[in-house]
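> tool_call: predict_assembly(chains=two)
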Amino acid sequence: MRHAGNRLGRYGLSLAVALLIWQAIVSLSAVPPFILPGPLRVGSALWSNASLLWQNALWSAGNLALGLAIGLFLGVETALLLAMSRRARWLLRPVLVAAQSVPIFALAPVLTLWLGYGMPSKVVTIALVTYFPIASALFDQLMALPRGLRDLAQLSGAQRLRETFLLRLPYALPGLMSGLRLAVVYGPLAVLIGEWVGSSRGLGHLMLLANGRGQTDLMFASLIVLALLSLGLWKGVDTLARWVGGGG
Amino acid sequence: MTAPALHISGRLEGPAGPLIAQFDATFAAGQWNVLLGPSGVGKTSLLRLIADLPCAARLTGEITATDGAALAPRVAMMAQDDQLLPWADALANVVIGARLRGARPDLQRGRALLAEVGLAAQAQRRPAQLSAGQRQRVILARTLYEDRPIVLLDEPFSALDVLTRHHMQDLAARLLAGRTVVLITHDPAEAARLAHHAWIATQAGIVPCSLPSSLPPRAAEAEETLAAQAILSRELKRCATQVPA
């Protein structure tokens, strides 16, 4: 625990130094605040817009959670289906590979065109962006079962379904976790893109709005809230991955 | 459970060319049959073909049990490593075969077998918390749990240190008695200790070797074991230098 305390102190210290330098640059150079607000100004914008930020953050976070859940569910299903059926691999894998070379982010305008400016287009964008890394990381690991365990399944007379759920899936959990790690890095980006393309709510929308009105301090405040959201999510997945990988 | 004898004959070809030109051997029922040979000669391929496991080599010939019944469902196999589930404890690893078949695992029997291989206290440990020798004993307990009349051993003891290896050899000889065992190894000392019958596999074929008349397992330090080991080493060396044109 002392170790963790030290680390927290170290992070706090380096953050404080960075903020101090930032404030010093702003104070000494007399940059106008609509170009670069100092941390004090951003802090006060955070404070005075707390309820506005909170409401929009809640909406973005809700979309992120839902999109991530859908991406995770479909990604796991796809990987299992591909691992279990040779025919599905033959049919779907080229499509998956091709889809991965399309930058999914670029689909956001089309999705907004089809699904409107509300929640659905945001959730679908997030789900699509998180789906591919999860599906491909899990699938690769499902197919990487060592020979000794494949032999064990065959010698025991295991059917494909039992082999998959008793051997392949537990063996592939670390792969699922690395896919999930990527997904939570891309997820918040998808939130931003989705809302930038067109939205009347959310942190991304607030950033555009603040930017347009020259409220650069509010834009920075939104950015900080989004960063905290991503960090919390990443930390959660990281803890889960350690727990899974470390064997409990 | 009556253990059948195994008859193998034919020609073994690998993806890169012929491995064993021509062979015809019968592995004795209920005894330890040891196949010695240099690495890369195709010993493991033969074993995998007996177990009907995927294998790069191709056999032109046949592998049959002398009682005429199908082989594959009566075979258990022990290899060097990577046969244990890293996320499961020793007990779960012993009974995994039952779960894979969709049967109810007999945990009491699993525990009894772990006790028999000397791991009663380690039933809750995961493979990473066990020594190499202990991991092999878990695999031995699993093999016993499967209770198959034919047991194939693919150099299961070669990665162990000498004392652990001798201990494992004694344990395996005692617990697998009465089954038709086929052990492949590159270690003449192991063959001299454990074999009722021994063969040397080379590119030319599979030839029987002479062994002491006493029954295995033979003491590692005994005069006759050492003499047999010397003879087997010499034979192995002679066969290895004799590369067919």
